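In the lab's daily routine, each protein ends up as an entry in a very long ledger. A line of letters takes care of the sequence, but it says nothing directly about the fold. The three-dimensional part falls to structure tokens, numbers that each stand for a local backbone shape. The outcome of that step, for a single protein, is printed below.
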Amino acid sequence: MRSVLARRLAVRPGRGLACRPAPTASRSNTSCRCQSTYNHFVGQDAPRTPEASSGFTLAVKDNIATADLPTQCASRILAGHQSPFEATIVRQLRERGAFVVGKTNMDEFGMGSHSTNSSHGPVRNPLSDDVAAGGSSGGSAVAVQLGDAEMAIGTDTGGSIRLPAAYTGTVGYKPSYGMISRFGVVPYANSLDTVGVIAKDAESIRSLVFDTGIHKENDPNDPTSLPTASRERCSAAVRRQPFDLSGLTIGIPLEYNIQELDPSIREAWDSAARTLQKQGAQVVPVSLPTTTEALCAYYVLAPAEASSNLAKYDGVRYGARSEERDGPGEPLYSRTRGAGFGDEVKRRILLGTYSLSSEAMDNYFIQAQKVRRLVQRDFDRVFRAENPLQDPRQFDLSDMAEATGMADKHGPVQVDFLLSPTAPTFPPKLSELRGQSSVDAFMNDVFTVPASLAGLPAVSIPAPVEGSVFPAGLQLIGQYWNDERMLVVAEKLQRLLSQK
């Protein structure tokens, strides 16, 4: 009997893609109707063959290696680069019936919040003209939104799956760190990068990852892939927990109710909380005090790791070589890197190099690592389930914020999941972004970064907003390795919200 995933994603005869290149078109520089309209593909595969019609269509972000299509990371320095091997996740999905329809546009090396920092130009949102699609996996989200692919994979470092999902009205899932192999993914920040999935609904994502057993597979090629014994221990820890909405406790982080939050998104957040209460869930406020420092810590740690990862792109050993000679007294590869990298990548390399310098490391990088640890402790304190990777600990009440509500004399209420907005605003116009500073763009990650720093699973689902073509993205966050249960809750909540 065919699996739930195969039944849900089976391609109906005659459906096809919304657009597809001619059989003779170049795979590395495809031109088609949807390419010129939304700029979400940077290269597409040949037309579907009859043998592939029983599977499902898959779009792959351009920083995930494929054997048959170039992997360019939307950067001039990797223009036309053909990987000698394929990413583990692509191989796993092909074995499960995936038919790769193309590589998707993105922010260069994953550095951005709107998919505008690309050598191929910005990705545009199909929900409205001249509107950002979100980044850095914007091309993958648009491919799913348009129906050009039934599923898409991308990467999420600080919100790069969840933010474009929120902007395009799709579902974006970031797994627990170490669950899905990163082998074959061009790294941005190794301690934060995860491979995620975008689809129209949470049920399809759960079927893809859990019904097919991908979540059980350790990859020996990826040192961050959780070992099999640890996976089994983590799975045993969450297996005892119920899946019904009735009896769940949902936390509303007080620190996420920021002044910049759009009133319509705040109302959608409140409405979703009321919907869960009507289904028997308890909804309570919780405090994550270090959340206010998480964004600053992230933009120290991620650029620091990026500056190290991108050092190999010098045009000598790796990357395209600039034809212009270096000037007297300049490093051998200065012009290659200057011409090959975009402005945002250069900015983050400089920022990361400075924070790793001997004079700044203690005040920036080390302090940011301490904040990251405190963010993780905040989450462990509010979740009812223990973190299976950490030793159980009793939190001292004196360490908690004064405003923390107490369930009883033993301590504060603990929750199964956290519910928050995914982004503080609706997607901005591309014309507005041209005059926006990098710091303004960084603010869009304020709700997604904390879960990334802690390595926790999170999923963004769309919530309809009356009078708006844009839905509000709502984010569920779970304890480590509680991914499947979180996706079940997301399925049910998405279904309830869509009925309004």
